[in-house]
């Protein structure tokens, strides 16, 4: 009841915006006890961000990754602190390695010819989980924990708005899936 809330602008599709946000937040010199990385796009058509990266990967993963890296010292100084990364069970339906088992960076930010919206989403969510696990390994000794969470299958949101087929699929499947 005594919390003070202040909105700040952040565009995860712009690494410059992420950097400006982090600088503005740091200039306030306030503690950061919890950081929730929840923004996502799903089923979006292929397009590149101003940073020349595929937009689903940048918005869903890379923007959050960069934000946490820029605020890592603030989180450590605010200990105890926590980072919560909202991911998805769909991370189970993809791979980010090539046929020899090595990380394939081309899968993370694919060309238009190689792009499939569902796979882009799944890969970004797999990156979320891998990032959260590694972040926890590195920062938990310093009082900062990181967890990745799955909010529930087909949770109601407008994330599927980019294509009518996804909207239909979500509507038909929702009664038969776990959700909040």
Q: Given the structure, what is the number of helices?
A: 5
Q: Biggest sheet: strands, sense, closure? A: 3 strands, parallel
Label the structural class.
mainly alpha
Query: Which percent band covers the strand fraction?
Result: 5-15%
The shape is: globular
Q: Which homologous superfamily in CATH is the superfamily?
A: NAD(P)-binding Rossmann-like Domain
In whole angstroms, how far apart are the ends?
25 Å
Quaternary status of these chains?
A: single chain
Low-confidence stretches: none
Looking at CATH, which topology would you report? Answer: Rossmann fold
Tally of distinct domains: 1
Query: What Rg, in angstroms, do the CA atoms define?
Result: 17 Å
Organism: Atlantisia rogersi (Inaccessible Island rail)
Protein name: WWOX oxidoreductase
GO molecular function: oxidoreductase activity
Keywords: NADP, Oxidoreductase
């Amino acid at each position: 009841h005594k919390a003070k809330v202040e909105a700040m602008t952040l565009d995860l599709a712009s690494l410059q915006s992420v950097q400006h946000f982090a600088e503005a937040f740091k200039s306030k010199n306030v503690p950061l006890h919890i950081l929730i990385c929840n923004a996502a796009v799903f089923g979006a058509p292929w397009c590149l961000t101003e940073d020349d990266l595929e937009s689903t990967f940048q918005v869903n993963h890379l923007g959050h990754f960069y934000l946490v890296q820029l605020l890592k010292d603030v989180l450590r100084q605010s200990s105890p602190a926590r980072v919560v990364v909202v991911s998805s069970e769909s991370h189970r339906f993809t791979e980010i390695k090539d046929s020899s088992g090595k990380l394939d960076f081309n899968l993370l930010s694919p060309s238009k010819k190689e792009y499939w919206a569902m796979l882009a989403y799944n890969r970004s969510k797999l990156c979320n989980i891998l990032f959260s696990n590694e972040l926890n390994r590195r920062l938990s000794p310093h009082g900062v924990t990181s967890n990745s969470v799955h909010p529930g299958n087909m949770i109601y949101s407008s994330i599927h708005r980019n294509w009518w087929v996804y909207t239909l699929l979500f509507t038909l499947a929702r009664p038969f899936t776990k959700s909040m």
